[in-house]
Amino acid sequence: MITLKINDKSVKVTEGTSIFEAAESIGCKIPALCYHRDLSVYGGCRLCIVEIKGRAGFPISCATPVEEGMEVLTHTPEICELRKNIFDLIIAYYPFECQLKCDSCATNKICELRQLAEEMEINELKFVPIARQGEMDDSSLALKFDSSRCINCGRCVRVCREVQHVGILTPSRRGPATQVSTFMDKGMGNVDCTGCGQCLLVCPVGAIQENFEINQVLAAIADPKKHVVVQVAPSVRFTIGEEFGEKAGVNLEKQMVTALRKLNFDQIFDTVFSADLTIMEESAEFIKRFTEGAKLPLISSCCPGWIRFAEDHLPELKDNLSTCKSPQQMFGALLKSYYAEKKGLEPKDIVSVSVMPCTAKKAECMRPEMIENGIYDVDYVLTTRELASMIQSRGMHLPELPEGKYDAPFGITTGAGLLFGVSGGVMEAALRTAYELITKEELPKIEFDDVRGLKGIKSAEIDIKGTKIKVAVANGLENSWQLLKHADDYHFIEIMACTGGCIGGGGQPISRDPDVLQKRKNGLYKDDKNMKLRKSHKNPAIQQLYKEFLGHPLSEKSHHYLHINADLQSPFIPK
């Protein structure tokens, strides 16, 4: 342990801790824009300068380790004035319309540039704004990048490289012309971008955002010829409240249903239903492969960010991917077939909308294998943030709305399907069903604790009446890359592209709370524990669907609607 003083206050921290982290531990906030607790130190913005007694100059606190007996000052008049000058230079390169006048900006509530300006009491420009060329990269189906807003903090570059093992972003050009770009300025849609949106979550100024589809959805709702149906993903109910000032992990599912009804959607369904359906198909697929000695490990296919990563970086694993569509796409396929038939509607007149925690879902629904006879399974994808914006634009405060209910029959769900919202949830839900389908007996303990938690890689050995099944779970694509070096050690693997799984998806509310994923996770597991139905195969609506329409898991009809077509080269890889 190292003992030092920060602003004359004694603090004891472990050796190797930076001054910035030591100050944070005692509640002393040092301004910074490029620093992020989950990424490597960059030291580019220079705002975190401090004074160390007995030393010349003003070192940056994020890159300076503590030393025994060190005395640090963080907010002397001289330091504060220097920081203001540094900040003025940063903002001089920022778009004029954004300089401290951002009330109309979609990211004004979470813009760290604005927050720092307020904290440092900067309310006017010191330097003449410097004209800077910037372009809008809208080549991606999932994300858009406005380089004119970029402050070159490097966060997006580092999260893409260090956390996601993708590395499509890099600083280009020199001097005042420096900006973040892709290889040869091709745009994010023309390189190996997975669309995961982790770069969006760490961007301090909103230079990266999702492709907004609010206007298209509102236009569909306003069209009397269209029947607009919306499905909502499991994790959204535990996160959307954050956009309205609620604590993370609070379930506002019933209030959200009321809001969707007030937005005039014709039918409101729960994606947890199709998560249960996914478990029926994926569990059957695993049992078939395991008992017949087919290609193992089976690797989950619910996460489109992971699937895109696998296509680009791990093509040798194509035969290991589950052929199951994701819950979003299964639901969309059912809406345009089973639901259309029951309602007497033409599939072309149904507009299928999903609310997802994920930006990559916007690209997933546009893939060629998700279209049949020119009709998309899912037409539009809204992020959690987009739905919150729609609700706020109608003057509704979500926590104060009365409770509502999903529509039948796709509103009957289980705790197993709910678990899809967190890393390890797909695996646990599949094991609950696979165990009972194999043994024909009740599980002695329904929770699989070994696959729970936010750890990057988790593994377990499951004993199913003497049969040992080795499973593994990874969240974050760098962790996935490391795990899959040892793929042959396992029978079944679940992978989620985002840290924490869907609770940390690129479409979720942007939070600077270091414990936000833990809070979201706790809320989800709490609700699973309190649900009456906790196993997918016990869902009566799922049983009825198979009886009326699908027949049985892995049936010919199931394969047609719920799996990737066999004539495709491999799962999720278009012709």
Description:
The chain is an alpha/beta fold. It folds into 3 domains: 2-119, Ubiquitin-like (UB roll) (Roll); 136-211, Alpha-Beta Plaits, CATH 3.30.70.20; 225-562, 3-Layer(aba) Sandwich (Fe-only Hydrogenase (Larger Subunit), Chain L, domain 3). It has 19 helices and 19 strands. The protein is globular.
CATH level-3 fold name of the largest domain? Fe-only Hydrogenase (Larger Subunit), Chain L, domain 3
**CATH architecture term of the largest domain:** 3-Layer(aba) Sandwich
Largest sheet: 4 strands, mixed
With helices defined by DSSP (H or I, 4 residues minimum), what is the helix count?
19
- Name the CATH superfamily assignment of the largest domain: Fe-only Hydrogenase (Larger Subunit), Chain L, domain 3
**What structural category characterises the helix and strand content?**
alpha/beta
> Which CATH class of the largest domain is shown?
Alpha Beta
Average pLDDT works out at 93
How many domains comprise the coordinates?
3
Overall geometric form: globular
Terminus-to-terminus distance? 59 Å
Strands in their spatial order, largest beta sheet: 2-1-4-3
**Poorly predicted spans:** 566-575
Number of strands: 19
> What is the helix content?
25-40%
| Rg (C-alpha, Å) | 25 Å
